[in-house]
Structures are given as structure tokens and as C-alpha cells.
Amino acid sequence: MRHFILGALALVLLAGCATPPPPEPGSAASKIVVMGKFKGIAVGAIRVARENGFLTAKVQLSNITSSNQMMYYRFAWLGADGFPVGDEETWRVLNLYANQATFLPAIANLPQAADFRLEVKTP
């Protein structure tokens, strides 16, 4: 009986250490890649459309704190095979005031882009 209790306790402890499952492919969470720290900013709705043959995206970001937040971001445009197309974008800076919400608009630099990934981090 004692071995059973110790085994059950070990399973409970190991289950607490398990990493969460990866986001569902195609979900909004799968579009965001956190590079380092990312605190105080929530990602909301994501809209994707094709305009004049180019993929466009709008991502809602909200500062969920009562102080100003700065973040860095860049879009990575992906082809139908899931690999990057075109040159890598440079990091951009976005300042969000306390409790502010905004949309990040982006347009792919090549018509071959079929998907995107938003890379984000905070200082």
C-alpha cells in the first residue's frame, strides 16, 4: 500500500511539471511567438485577408497594466510550405500607454506569402 501511495504522489508531482501542449495549428495562439520576456501585454483578435494579391494581417494588442509598456515586434511571412519567404523584417518598437489597446497592421512583402508569424518581446 505504501508503494502505491508513493507512486501516486510521484505521478501527481510529475504531472505538475508537464509542459502545456502546443497551440492548435491555425489558431491565433499559433501565430504569436514570444522571443524572451513578454509581460503586461495581451494579444487579442487577429484578422487575416488577401488584398490585391498580398496577405494582410491585423493583430490586436492591449496593455493590461496601469503603466506604459514598450514592446518589440516583427512579422515573419511564411509560404504555403510553412517556411519563411522574403527577407527577414527588422524589429520595430511599439509604445503602449496604460490600458491602451491598438491594432498592428501589416502587409506581406511578397505575394507568395500564405501565412504569418508575429514575433514579440518586451525589454
Automatic annotation (TrEMBL):
<dbReference type="InterPro" id="IPR010824">
    <property type="entry name" value="DUF1425"/>
</dbReference>
<keyword id="KW-0732">Signal</keyword>
<dbReference type="Pfam" id="PF07233">
    <property type="entry name" value="DUF1425"/>
</dbReference>
<feature type="signal peptide">
    <location>
        <begin position="1"/>
        <end position="20"/>
    </location>
</feature>
<dbReference type="InterPro" id="IPR038483">
    <property type="entry name" value="YcfL-like_sf"/>
</dbReference>
<protein>
    <recommendedName>
        <fullName>Lipoprotein</fullName>
    </recommendedName>
</protein>
